[in-house]
Amino acid sequence: MAGSALPTSEISADAASDLSSDALLPQLLDARAVAPILDFSKSSYIWTGEQTGMAHTAPAGMRPFRVEIPSSAMKCPTCATIIVACDDQCPVYVNGQQIGTGRAPQQGAVVYTAGLNPDSKNVFAIGMSNTAEGSAGLIATILVDYTDGTTETIISNSTWKTLKGVAPSGWTSPSFDDSTWTAADVEGPSMASPWGALVLPPAINMTTAGALPQRRSLRLMGNPLSAARLFSPCMSHAVFLYSCSLCLWSSREDSYTLYVNGKIVRTGSTWRAMQAYSLPQLEPDVNVVAVDGANLQGNTRVWLRVGVLIAYNDGSSEMYLTDGTWKTLNALPPAGFEQPDADDSEWVGATL
User: Fold this and answer.
1) How many CB atoms lie within 10 A of CB 253?
2) What burial class does residue 294 get, using C-beta atoms within 10 Å of its C-beta: 0-12 exposed, 13-18 middle, 19+ buried?
3) pTM: predicted TM-score of the whole model, two decimal places
4) Angle in degrees, CA 108, 113, 119, rounded to 5
5) How far apart are CA 331 and CA 346, in angstroms?
6) pLDDT one-digit tens code per residue, 15-43
7) Whole-angstrom Cα distance, residue 81 to residue 144?
8) Helix (H) or strand (E) holding 20
């Protein structure tokens, strides 16, 4: 996919999404719901049960935690996003691959997205390190997207498994046998002492995303993808999107129609409301995002900003933002411009 890849740790998880992919996947219409807010309101701090006193004092050392992603023959996970904080340090793994590292609650939570394997077991594993004797705790919320268009939220609680000791070899693998592990001990809610209120991850960093002004037609050609998520900020806020989706900035007077692979995802006409769109799956080869925008008022500034987060099954992810690699026409769009096989060889690079 054209564009500049960015880290994904600056994406906000503190916003709701308006999921809409009816034209793309009409069979999922009944299953799709408004996406939940990803926060810590129902999550708890957990540890191994070794902690003592109101300060949750625990010995120094590393302790492993595991949780399996729910799935069934009819409900296959494709993608997951986690927000996490820990006292003190915690690398985060999905199916044996490290996707990031948590940090202390006082520094604020972090967010990571990873592709999942729809056909096999998926496990989040977190290695919690208490660097010195004292308080210790892990808190997390995981949002899982499924191929049927639904989502499920997993919270840190006693359903997570842990050990009162050093993690054995291979413990991050989904095939690891944790049947003898014990249930995690719940220390308290997200506001519990000594940690206090948690700051959710900051808004997506769109400072390097170009504003594409006064363009009628836009296309972005994508490379082969696994699971994907797209994000869009509105003003100083951000929208949290799920699975494969796209979000935009446009001025209040403007209207746009958003297409993915030739199908209408949504229309919109305001930048004051956060716009979020979701698709549970993309094509395995080429994917095209297209936008048909109109400046309805004339002689006013209009723009489009887009962020695309792609999560791969190997645990990696990439962020792509609007820049000069997008193709455009300062004219009415030709018939079929939104189709993946449309010829845009004579289109020009978008102006920032």
Assistant:
1) 16
2) middle
3) 0.69
4) 145
5) 13
6) 333 333 333 233 232 233 334 568 999 99
7) 7
8) none
Per the model's pLDDT, the better-predicted residue between 335 and 213 turns out to be 335
pLDDT per residue as tens digits for the range 190-221: 998 889 888 887 544 444 444 443 333 444 44
Report the DSSP beta bridge partners of residue 244.
279
Q: Would you tell me how many other CB atoms lie within 10 Å of the CB of residue 337?
A: 22
CA atoms within 13 A on the CB side of 303: 16
More confident residue, 286 or 107: 107
Residue whose entry in the numeric block shows the structure tokens 């940090």: 103
Q: Fill in the DSSP letter of residue 125.
A: E
Read off the tokens for 232: 């869009």
Three-state secondary structure call for residue 83? strand
Q: Which two tokens stand for residue 82?
A: 């986690």
| Angle at the Cα of 230 from the Cα atoms of 228 and 232, rounded to 5 degrees | 175
Which amino acid appears at position 286 of this protein?
A: V
Distance CA 185, CA 143 (A): 22
Question: Apex CA 191: angle with CA 243 and CA 92, to 5°?
Answer: 40
